[in-house]
Amino acid sequence: MSLSNNINSLNWQSIKQDLDEQGYAVIRAVIPRDVSDQLIASYSQADLYRSTIVMKRYNFGKGEYKYFAYPLPDSIVYLRNELYTPLSSVANEWNLKLGINLTYPEKHQDFIEACQQQNQYRPTPLILKYETGDFNTLHQDLYGELYFPFQAVLFLSQPQEDYTGGEFVLIEQKPRLQSQAIVLQPNRGDMVIFTTNFRAAKGTRGYYRSPMKHGVSKLHSGNRYTVGIIFHDAK
Ligand SMILES: O=C(O)CCC(=O)C(=O)O
Ligand SMILES: [Fe+2]
């Protein structure tokens, strides 16, 4: 199956339900093998990137990632556009539930123009590479005043074959309660969509903001590649 076939047949009703109930959704077998192989191969193609971050230097963990430059690779442009529109309607519902007075436009291009009005011009999609012993500390990817409340990670490597350890970790920090850890180990080709900042959680007196962070546990062996698709641009 091709990437566009897979994206066109996504079950948005079930993705929306997972996002509403959990703040994240795991979508199986959406990135074809040729696309994941190509993204991994492009890691060493310097002209595709605007900057390289050595995580240890910033105490972000251990490993390396690179921000793509504009123009983004076709597969990333495609996913950024196609995922944005259905997610914008979930985002708008969450804002209504939470009493946040902000409506996201239906088209990603219009949202990018809104980012530019906030002086957010730099592309944020990135590719990450972890080797044995590497990890990514819990964080949020908010790059300016204006942000989109969902992001996606594409899993390009196969656990147990390409690497061990290196689980994808989400932490939900409900206000005044102890934090909950969610540990995922998706297969190559899977995609996880999750909230960048907080989800709309239902309490006894309506909805409240429940913050979430994400990160990666230490790799015990091998190499692990992911691509992060963030919808807002950065300052
Ligand atoms: O490598 C991962 O699984 C996490 C990547 C990440 O932090 C991101 O895409 O924002
Ligand atoms: Fe991240």
Automatic annotation (TrEMBL):
<dbReference type="InterPro" id="IPR018655">
    <property type="entry name" value="DUF2086"/>
</dbReference>
<comment type="similarity">
    <text>Belongs to the iron/ascorbate-dependent oxidoreductase family.</text>
</comment>
<dbReference type="InterPro" id="IPR005123">
    <property type="entry name" value="Oxoglu/Fe-dep_dioxygenase_dom"/>
</dbReference>
<dbReference type="Pfam" id="PF09859">
    <property type="entry name" value="Oxygenase-NA"/>
</dbReference>
<protein>
    <submittedName>
        <fullName>2OG-Fe(II) oxygenase</fullName>
    </submittedName>
</protein>
<keyword id="KW-0560">Oxidoreductase</keyword>
<feature type="domain" description="Fe2OG dioxygenase">
    <location>
        <begin position="111"/>
        <end position="234"/>
    </location>
</feature>
<keyword id="KW-0408">Iron</keyword>
<keyword id="KW-0479">Metal-binding</keyword>
